Amino acid sequence: MRIEGKGLIDRGQQINFQFDGHSYQGFGGDTLASALLANDIALMGRSFKYHRPRGVLSAGSEEPNALVTTGLGAAQEPNVRATTLELHEGLVTKSQNRWPSLGFDLMSLNDWAAPFLGAGFYYKTFMWPKALWEKLYEPVIRNAAGLGALSGKHNVETYEKAYAHCDLLVIGAGPAGLLAALTAARAGADVILAEEDTRTGGRLNAETLEVDGKPGAVWAEEITAELAQMDNVRIMTRTSVVGAYDQGTFGALEKVPHDVSMRLGAPRECFWRIVAKRAVLAAGAIERPVAFRNNDRPGIMTAGAVRAYLNRWRVATGRNVVVFGNTDEAHRTVADLQDAGVHVSALVDARHHAKCDLDVPFYAGAEVCDAGGGKRLESVTIRTAKGTENVQADCLAMSGGWNPTVNLTCHMGGRPTWDRDIAAFVPVDGAVPGLSTAGACQGDFSTHKCLEAGVAAAQGALDDLGLKRADVVAPAAEDGVYDIYPVYAVPGKGRAWLDFQNDVTVKDVKQAAVENFQSVEHMKRYTTQGMATDQGKNSNVAALAVLADATGRGIPETGTTTYRPPYTPVSIASLGAGAQCKGFAPERFTTSHKATQEKGAPFIEAGLWYRPSYFPKAGETHWRQSCDREVNMVRNAVGVCDVSTLGKIDVQGPDAGAFLDFVYTNAFSTLKVRRVRYGFMLREDGHVMDDGTTARLSEQHFVMTTTTAAAGQVMRHLEFVHQCLVPQMDVRFTSVTEQWAQFAVAGPQSRDLLNDLLDTPIDDESWPFMACGEVSIGGVKGRLFRISFSGEHAYEVAVPSRYGDSLFRTLMTKAEALGGGAYGMEALNVLRIEKGFITHAEIHGRVTAYDIGMGGMVSGKKDCIGKASAARPGMVEESRERMVGLKPVGEVKELIAGGHLFDKGAEAVSANDQGYITSVGFSPTLGHNIALGFLKDGPARHGEVVRMVEHLNGVETLCEVCHPVFFDAEGGRTRG
Amino acid sequence: MRITCPICGERDRREFYYQGAAVALDRPEADAEPEAWVDYVHVRDNPCGMTRDLWYHEHCGSWVVVTRNTATHEVIETALASDIKEQGA
Amino acid sequence: MAFSGWRVLKEGLTGNKGWAPHWRDAAPKDEYDVVIIGGGGHGLSTAYYLAKNHGISNVAVLEKGYLGGGNVGRNTTIVRANYFLPGNSEFYSHSLKLWEGLEDDLNYNVMMSQRGQISLFHSDGQRDAAIRRGNSIRNQGDDAELLSRDDVKRHLPYLDYDQARFPIYGALLQRRAGTARHDAVAWGFARGASDRGVDLIQNCEVTGIDVEGGVVKGVQTSRGAIKAKKVAIIVAGRSSQVAAMAGMRLPIESHILQAFVTEGLKPCIDHVVSFGMGHFYISQSDKGGLVFGGDLDMYSSYAARGNLPLVEHVMEAGMTLMPMIGKAKVLRSWGGIMDMSPDGSPIIDKTQTQGLYLNCGWCYGGFKAVPGSGYSTAHLIATDTPHTPAARYRLDRFFTGRGLMDEEGTGSQHNLH
Question: Nearest CB to A150: which of C7, C278, C327?
């Protein structure tokens, strides 16, 4: 019910919204919860297990009950707290976890079955008959569980991530946070003030307390206005700091207001990484409910929430309120309600010594022990020393005291300590380096103490930052004594709720203790206490008090569970912002990409690069037709292929040759200038890391090529070897992969094609096999390497990247004129398999030089990376799986990469496994499939017929083991 | 997590590649016993507390020896691996 | 006390007053036949199988904190047998078979849910590797199926097939893979071991290992000295520290693995989905939370908590693969300490100290190994001969170079596995 008075709402702005299909009105500044309460809607949700009717418990992000689903279609968002959901025009919300409706929920039958559904019941049943677990029990449990539903549709909204840096991050803009920010800002520090609420002020917005002789909320507005004018301050409202990480890094989620997020391109949420030299946590405290029988009836809420709805939103949460508490705040609640004209039928104070100066039926040393009603509270039972008494009520404001919000101080492994005076956990100093605490989050519960603590925390931070302290004095404010008589659970029969959402009751915790789940972690895991969406913010302390009692220990000895990030739940879309669609990893394009696209070539991913699969010609309906043609083209005429994606590393310096000797297994210092040599490098554990060719352009200048996928790894490796092992060597490395566009020109007519382009023609004498050097192409300085990955007379020609597109188009045109053309990865793969050349399909990280038949390339004359490990006995055993060629010899001609090899006649089981196939291609040159693979003692078994079995496609093929070079074993074509 | 690159200053952990214990600097002689090589390549002290490990600052290409605490993630000191290697050599 | 639906009914009708402790809390005795250091999943299952299979019940499990408080208490609950290298293949195959009978065996519902794991691939090369893997699995006698892109669409209609950075070519499906309720596994083994006479001793930290003349004699603990004929170190995450008490250095580096759970949601993901290109895997718990994770934080650590770069990377992978989860909210993140070995595979072996056994190096694959690891370790302790499915988990393989099991092919950089 909305009442008179100003509050912090804008009555001039009427907002229409829907809840469960009904239309309602609220005001600017309302949350869904305040607006529903203003419309006398108390029932807002259902609990997780028993589907008990639930109303709002709190007025903050810790709300466990009033969770709704908002939005339609792909914008549907489940589990939104009604207590923090800002009302906006046209907002559509619905309740969740009920069927068929919130008012009539058939699943609430669970509540009747509660005796059988206590803590951990599922560990003891659903085991018979076994088959029914997956067919019946589990699906039923899964469908009953869960809260709201995702839409199942791809996200269509914008989310963002950003970085921010500051001298001081102030977390929370209540009285302590505001003064901390002001103190630091006046001293000239760069300040970020983050507040999860839509406005600064914290509890001042919910109370009638005065600061500096003004209403608290007015004071907060004035301070905020001063801060907002300062260039060195950034106020971030709607921003929840959710995690504390190493070296002053904090994660924070900013929710963008609806009217802003609706603008084109604007995000709904932004996830911030804030790097702060110092931080002040001023996160306040959260009020504890009290556990008593049926304490979950809609209309029962924390006293602080009742005051917040009353004072901030001018909503009376009931017409007939009972207040139950154990501190003076219960009295303040009564006063606020009475001032607003709301009837209070009883004030129940658990403290025996409490006095009351208000005009209200007063019960000292008493407690509320039961609540009547169904979908709305109707009455409460008050128990005093004399007996029990039933009082009519549609709202109960309860307070068990306050828990400092210590969460962030525990994100780096810190544990809070128990403070008996306030019956709550308080943070430990220094638990997060650079972060200090101020105000209610460290147990200062008077407004004045909060203000003083804010100033003090900021002054401390200024000292650390080496800045001069600013002269700020905490203004006059309420400075009451926090006098608490701890009440966690009221004894009695029936079920008393601790964790509202997860339906964990006092009985459950006690039963867990009986069953020996006595560690607080065991109790949590067995009962699910504290595992709901509020992560125990409302209930953990009371639950462990009950556990402590049940196990005969004290609360400090019982300890807490671990506080983990995030403080409030964070959408995956915001944490993963930017990655949807193609944003997950960079896309790298070669200079020939556009020309290749124009040719209609489909692309495949090669690491982060895109490379053409094949270049289809008119009339070709299957990739194999294109691939076969391209292979034939290279074998018979000339083909052109972009090989720019291979890593290219410039190696220069007087010691370049000696250095390469150390990283490669074979020698490079002996390589002549203007010559190229193939080499491979090992990891220090003796396995092959990568291979490629390295060209010596001059005495002190080499250009190394790596495989596409390993370019970064090799670069890092070179720097490692140099800086960490041989820094005395004078050599430097630069990655030039992006700087050079490089094209393979392969085939019998490759030289003819090139001579058509080169300013100075070449011949066998000037450019023999494995020669390299500078060339000029139409006046452009380039490089030419006579190397071959196809087994043909071939070259690779490189030009600065800006000429890549032009050169590729020219090469293609000229090749076509010679009966050739561009070829793609499919043909490249077939060509190299025909020649037995390896790629990362073969050097997959588990093979040795010995395995690939290159043991002889590990020079005996010098040390190199990996040499010692490669000499371990198990690395050079004949029985190892070693590389072979394979060709089909039976009726079935199909070979499949990944198929395993067995002796002819042996059963295809692990014990008989002889090896596997790594690469397969159809060789148009030979007219059949060919494969490379690894076979136990392979080189000794050439000529033997083995069986390939590929279970997944159901293929079995007899194949003959052969040398891995299928074509032109003597290499005459390459040299010719 | 933030690490100070001796060349570039304090940077986010995202800019660094982690390699492992700084024992990698102490490569055995080529003719060392097999045990020495197994120790170098595979065996680790793996302390819970202070450790020295190798990180690669991908933005400037420096290998950095980071002295830090594996229990708290506190970074105590950073230095260029090449400086340490040359001083030690 | 036997658990059953009838028992739950009977107790429910009589006020739930008859329930008893699931396991006995024991005080340490002076001497045991076997002392197991570590009351995690592997330690508890080792104790259980020592008692059950070998009749050795004069056993103590010493736990520094609370039972099941290590990685068995903070993982992503995936159970599978889809390894492809000899050694891993037979071991995980055996472990999966034990999982399938675990509820019967333990009389404890560990909620083993064989909902199937779908491992996506994104290129021809990855498909070839998946086929090799799938055939290894089939050769071992376990199940694996190759799914085409269209097959994957039928199973997982919610993936982004058109826009994802790495297009989906297909997947390998193992139907018998799935998830289990992780805590229940620890508790079930604890109860089973305790019922068979094993002493489970919590809050008992081992501070020293007594060795005389190359023979283990017992352990020193925060609750006094305990003599033992045999001692097993089963403390993944802390292996290096405990092994050091016996003068050993291990081929282990400890790393952080983070994982995440969202708020409860109605059923939307019915399988375990793994996205290797993005180091991302996900399933939905019976409670409704999406449980997911990714790669290591990539620096050695014992802090049991991680940092944002990895958090964001995992979420980014999720958003590119299945952008329908964007509006699910991460409720909790946590970090566990992983025993990373140089080849990514574990060690179950004797040590040079007589009577001292070592079980470590589970990297981030230890949960699914819980039954198999305990079974094989118990066999090794009881008989002093390796159990066949775990016979390749030798400590000396790094010395000999023989039988390395590097599934990732990344070599001896501990964090890359």
Answer: C327
Mean residue pLDDT of chain B comes to 96
Q: What is the pLDDT of residue C142?
A: 98
Q: What is the pLDDT of residues A794-807, one digit of tens each?
A: 999 999 999 999 99
Name chain B contacts of A863, Cβ cutoff 8 Å: 30
B30: chain A residues, CB-CB within 8 Å: 863, 867-868
Q: What does the pLDDT look like over A607-631, one tens digit per residue?
A: 999 999 999 999 999 999 999 999 9
Residue B85 and residue A725: Cβ atoms within 8 Å? yes
Same domain, C194 and C47: yes
Predicted local distance difference test score (pLDDT) of residue C264: 97
Give the CATH number, domain containing residue B45: 3.30.2270.10
Q: Flag if B20 and C253 touch (Cβ within 8 Å).
A: yes
Chain B hits for A720, Cβ within 8 Å: 19, 24, 54, 56, 63
Which amino acid does the sequence have at A527?
Answer: T
The answer to whether B89 faces chain C, any CB pair under 8 Å, is no
The verdict on C120 and C194 lying in the same domain is no
Question: What's the total number of domains in chain C?
Answer: 2
In terms of Cα–Cα distance, which of A514, A549, A516 is closest to C200?
Answer: A516
Smallest CA–CA distance from B56 into chain A, residue: A716
Interval A667-698: pLDDT, tens: 999 999 999 999 999 999 999 999 999 999 99
A 10 A CB-CB count for A163 gives: 10
Confidence of residue A144 (pLDDT cuts 50, 70, 90): confident
Residues C259 and C167 in one domain: yes
Residue C265: give the domain boundaries: 113-177+254-340
pTM metric for this prediction:
0.97
- Residue A695's H or E segment, with its range, is strand A688-698
* pLDDT above 90: percentage of residues in chain C: 99
Residue C5 domain flag: no
Q: To which residue do tokens 């919300």 refer?
A: A93
CATH class entry, domain A10-144: alpha beta
Statement to judge: residues C335 and C187 lie in one domain: no
Which chain A residue has the Cα nearest residue C125?
Answer: A841
- pLDDT on residue C164: 85
Distance from C-alpha of A783 to C-alpha of A774, rounded to nearest angstrom? 4
Give the side-chain half-sphere CA count within 13 A for A407.
24
Cα atoms in the Cβ-side hemisphere of radius 13 Å centred on C317: 20
Q: What is the dihedral of CA A505, A511, A517, A523, to 10 degrees?
A: 0
Three-state SS annotation for A820-839: CEECCHHHHHHHHHHCCCCC
Tell me which residue of B55, B48, B46 sits closest to B3, measured CA to CA.
Answer: B55
Residue type, A976: G
Chain C partners within 8 Å of A507 (Cβ)? 16
CATH number of A289-400: 3.50.50.60
According to DSSP, residue A784 is labeled E
- Summary mean pLDDT of chain A: 97
| Amino acid letter for position A351 | R
Whether ipTM > 0.90 holds is: yes
pLDDT score of A976: 78
Pairing of strands B50-57, B16-21: antiparallel
Q: Which of C189, C193, C234 is nearest to C393 (CA)?
A: C234
Dump pLDDT digits (tens) for A361-386.
Answer: 999 999 999 999 999 999 999 999 99
Q: Do the Cβ atoms of C363 and C340 come closer than 8 Å? A: yes
Cα pseudo-dihedral B54, C305, A410, A168, rounded to 10? 50
Q: Give a yes or no: residue C103 inside a domain.
A: no
Q: Exposure of A574 by Cβ count < 10 A (0-12 exposed, 13-18 middle, 19+ buried)? A: buried
Q: Is C89 on the interface with A (CB under 8 A)?
A: yes
Distance CA A794, CA A780 (A): 21
Sorting pLDDT into bands at 50, 70 and 90, what band is C385?
very high
